[in-house]
């Protein structure tokens, strides 16, 4: 099944790919690997900000990570690569959190679950879920991706 058909079947609409907020490219391709820069969580057009364990719940963080995943797909779409995805190789998840917060993996599951939901086995990936003191624009979550592409 084509990715666009699967998204439609799931009722998932991709957001408009966000423009870079600094000096970088949203997607860089080297051979058959696409590197997607860290994406921030926009839900209903608003950036999800704050710290997990303080003013952002695990549920809201999970939703934010899913939004980052949708933006990764939007960036791949904007680069003309969405239908060329052969395998999600790795997601890197960063969670702005207080020192006592230890549920970063539960938060980043929002992005991981999305990839499996859309791509099935192709969406299964290696992953990191790291707690950090602050992210750009006070975002609660940031997720990047490494994706293998079909020739």
From TrEMBL:
Check the record and name the InterPro entries matching this protein.
Answer: Endoribo_LPSP/chorism_mut-like (IPR013813), RutC-like_sf (IPR035959)
Which Pfam families does the annotation name? YjgF_endoribonc
**Entry's PANTHER family?**
ENDORIBONUCLEASE L-PSP_CHORISMATE MUTASE-LIKE DOMAIN-CONTAINING PROTEIN, ENDORIBONUCLEASE-RELATED
Q: What is this protein called?
A: RidA family protein
- Matches recorded under Gene3D superfamilies: RutC-like
User: Locate the Endoribonuclease L-PSP/chorismate mutase-like domain: which residues?
Assistant: 6-141
Entry superkingdom: Bacteria
Provide the transmembrane region boundaries.
Answer: none
Q: What organism is this sequence from?
A: Qipengyuania gelatinilytica
């Amino acid at each position: 099944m084509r990715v666009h058909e699967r998204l439609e079947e799931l009722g998932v609409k991709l957001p408009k790919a966000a423009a870079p907020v600094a000096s970088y490219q949203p997607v860089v391709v080297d051979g058959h690997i696409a590197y997607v820069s860290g994406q921030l969580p926009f839900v209903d057009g608003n950036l999800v900000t704050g710290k997990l364990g303080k003013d952002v719940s695990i549920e809201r963080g999970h939703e934010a990570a899913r939004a980052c995943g949708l933006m990764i797909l939007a960036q791949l779409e904007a680069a003309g690569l969405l239908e060329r995805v052969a395998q999600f190789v790795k997601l890197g998840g960063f969670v702005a959190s207080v020192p006592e917060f230890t549920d970063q993996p539960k938060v980043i599951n929002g992005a991981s679950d999305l990839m499996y939901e859309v791509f099935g086995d192709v969406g299964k990936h290696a992953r990191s879920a790291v707690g950090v003191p602050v992210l750009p624009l006070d975002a609660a979550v940031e997720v990047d991706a490494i994706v293998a592409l079909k020739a």
